Amino acid sequence: CDVLDVQAACQDAIVTQQLLQEGFHRDLLVKVELGIMGEDIGECTVAARTRLPPGIYVDPYELASLQQHNLTKVVLIPDAVDVEAPEYLATDLVVLTYMKPDPQCSHCFQAALPVHGRYHRPAENNREALVVLKSPEVLICCCDNRLSTECWKPSEVEAPCSGRNDYPCQWYSVKHKPVYEELVMHVPVGLRQHDSLVCLVTLLTTVFCSSLILAAVCKYGHFS
Which segments cross the bilayer (predicted)? Predict the structure, then answer.
């Protein structure tokens, strides 16, 4: 009977993710509905661990500003991100996003993460590159509450349980069922036949702007 009760209580969590806006600068919205029956998870922390492929990155300076205003809480692995690197020189990035309870749904959590598309190599015909996002891993941490952990398996995550403390605690991976296994981000890409035109326009713009700066320095500068 105990085994049957545990199996009945261990329902899969439901995970959905959605990309908002268009173009290079997007918001990744993640929603989680935990399938835990009869458990009080008020003192627990839920997080989504997402592996971003090289075609997408998060800006650590933007995240720092958002965290200062308590708009989000994120842990980056690694914490150093080259925001200028193109897709073909970048590496994967793991993001641990702390989720907030959804007031309209019991046992539901959500979080929004600002993400940015990287520049790709120019293509021959396609005007868009496809960047595939896998479904995130759902993690739960109950440092201040003793819950049964039959539904979860320990996860090796070095991160604080919540914003109230700075020491790591035991995280558990929640078995989940994604609504969609993958999410595809469409990133604009330049065409190879436009290389000469782009180079010419860039050169002319650089010369024009440099001339304006030089003229302003000569006119308003003070030289001893």
Answer: 197-217
- DSSP-derived letter for residue 164 is T
129/117 Cα distance (integer angstroms) = 10
CATH assignment, 13-190: 2.60.40
- Give the Cβ contact number of residue 83 at 10 Å: 13
> What are the extents of the domains in the chain?
13-190, 192-223
pLDDT score for 92: 92
How many CA within 13 A on the CB side of residue 13? Answer: 28
Among 18-27, 44-53, 85-94, 195-204, which is the least confidently predicted range? 195-204
For residue 74, the cross-strand partners are: 97
Q: Give me the amino acid identity at 138.
A: V
What is this structure's pTM?
A: 0.76
Instruction: Give me 90's structure tokens.
Output: 């970048």
